[in-house]
Design brief:
By secondary structure, the protein is α+β, with helices and mostly antiparallel strands. It is 38% helix and 36% strand. It has a 6-stranded mixed beta sheet with strand order 2-1-6-5-4-3. The relative contact order is 0.15.
Length: 153
């Protein structure tokens, strides 16, 4: 009977939940939360959006990516996202200046996230500047080649 507490302690220590928690903690401690390479994707995104390059912007999304558009439409997959951007960019008007100011960014285990503020500025023919600003959240996922893709925005 004196061995029972020891046996129970060993079984609990080796239970799948405990082992999973220990492995997860080890991975979290070993993997740096360095997300500097997410800045490259953000810069490509800004350049494509500012230049109204729907094809380049669409390529940044995962094949099964999701975009919650400014008009609150939820677009799923590159095809829908590309169609949306092409239609939006075909509208006549001056090109916007787009600024992203990230506040948090991290990456771990093939996923990344970034939050921040954005601002779009458009100068009309009359010289009047229209500003649109808000916050953004972007979830990234590495594809099979290791390249970051926008999974959800």
């Amino acid at each position: 009977m004196r061995r029972l507490p020891l046996v129970v302690a060993v079984v609990v220590a080796l239970s799948p939940v405990t082992v999973h928690a220990q492995v997860a903690a080890s991975i979290a401690a070993a993997v740096p939360a360095d997300a500097a390479d997410l800045a490259d994707v953000r810069d490509e995104y800004r350049a494509a959006a500012t230049g109204r390059d729907a094809a380049a912007l669409t390529r940044l999304f995962a094949d099964d990516g999701v975009l919650v558009a400014a008009d609150r439409a939820v677009l799923r997959g590159r095809r829908e996202i590309g169609t949306y951007f092409a239609a939006a960019f075909s509208a006549a008007g001056p090109l916007p200046a787009v600024t992203f100011t990230p506040t948090t960014a991290e990456s771990r285990n093939g996923f990344g996230s970034e939050t921040g503020r954005f601002e779009e500025r458009v100068t009309g023919a009359d010289g009047e500047v229209t500003r649109l600003s808000g916050v953004y959240v972007t979830i990234y996922r590495r594809d099979a080649s290791g390249r970051w893709r926008v999974a959800i925005e």
